[in-house]
Amino acid sequence: MRNPFHCLLLLLLIPLIHGSPAFRQKPFGSKEERAIIEENLKNTLVTHAQYASASYCPREKVESWLCGNRCIGELKLTSYFTAKVTGMAGYVGIDEKKKKIVVALRGSMNVGNWFQNLQFAPLNYEYPNASSDTRVYFGFYGAFKSVRGYIREGIAKAISSVEDCSEFDTVVTGHSLGGAVAVFTALDIKRNYAKEGGNTTALKRLNTDRLYLHTYGEPRVGNEKFSQLVSTVLYTKPDRVIRVTSGNDPVPQIPLEVMMYQHHPHEVWIDTAGNAISCLDREGEDSKCSHGQLVYDPITHMKYWDIEFGPMCK
To answer: How confident is the model at residue 232, as a pLDDT?
Structure first.
């Protein structure tokens, strides 16, 4: 069963995507080659997609970590949250065996979520060393602010539950709207939990050199300056920031480029054969990947590889 809110909005937006005079960029001329990613990296992305998928499951299933193949490993939740006004939801957990702290943000599930999605107005975004003309999507940032306190609380609990978390990976993930909120979450972690400049002694224990931002079907979050900021702050190694897209999923094409929005790197695109392709988007969106599709299908937004996103949990 597909989420009706996803399908309705996507059907309304597809004509806008195709009607935009800048709905595809020209290749930006890189000497690099597109290639299928290594199997180890693909397996990591699949695992993190399962964490994102689990965020759609009912609260009781997530808190007990019993939601079939979506709830993998031995994750212990330190926070499950839902914001009343925005409808934004997600969880924070820790897997001591895998040495992972996980922050997963849910995609759109209700009218409140889609109200956030439709607030297209640009908003000034303040961040250390950010350009004064850095802009983000008002609705997405509002969704993040509505759950920021819950996320910070959950991370603090995860950190305090172990004696030493310096070797733990921190994974921030989400699908659709959750992917957009995940971007702000990763930036917030980098700024407030860093060993240098963290806001409390306890939070300085988190090793932000091991921070991963992996999103799925993420819409455009900000303008070009914001894209550059994300790359500068978070892209410390090639596998740290990955924006996974699939086939002809229309969601990564909104908000429109004519509204001055641009994706941050690095895109990994799942082609029709199921191959995960490393795209060339360090200097702009790659017209040979998601951005270059001629026809869009909203159904592809709800399934990446064999992982389904939506409320139908076993």
So the answer is: 96
DSSP secondary structure, 193-215, as one string: S-TTT-SSTTGGGS-GGGEEEEE
Kindly list the averaged pLDDT for each block of 10 residues, start to end, along the chain of length 314. Answer: 47 46 39 85 98 97 96 98 94 98 90 55 94 95 97 95 93 98 98 61 74 98 97 94 97 90 97 95 90 90 95 81
pLDDT of residue 17: 46
Q: Which residue type sits at 288? A: K
Distance, CA of 310 to CA of 224 (rounded, Å) = 30
290 and 267 in contact (C-beta within 8 Å)? yes
Question: What distance in Å separates the CA atoms of residue 291 and residue 33, rounded to the nearest whole number?
Answer: 17
Q: What is the pTM of this model?
A: 0.88
Answer for the pair 264, 220: CB distance below 8 angstroms, yes or no.
no
Q: How many CB atoms lie within 10 A of CB 114?
A: 17
Say how far apart CA 121 and CA 60 lie, in whole Å: 36
Two structure tokens written together for 71: 């709830």
Q: Give the pLDDT confidence score for residue 201 in this predicted structure.
A: 54
**Helix 224-234 crosses helix 177-192 at what angle (to 10 degrees)?**
50
Segment (H or E) for 136:
strand 135-137
Residue 226 CA from chain centroid, whole number = 15
Tell me the H-state helices in the chain.
4-19, 39-54, 59-63, 111-117, 138-160, 177-192, 224-234
Q: Distance (Å, rounded) from C-alpha 68 to C-alpha 64?
A: 11
Beta bridge partners of 94: 76, 101
* Residues paired with residue 199 on neighbouring β-strands, in sequence order: none
Domain 75-308 - what CATH class?
A: alpha beta
- Residue 171 · residue 101 · CB < 8 Å: yes
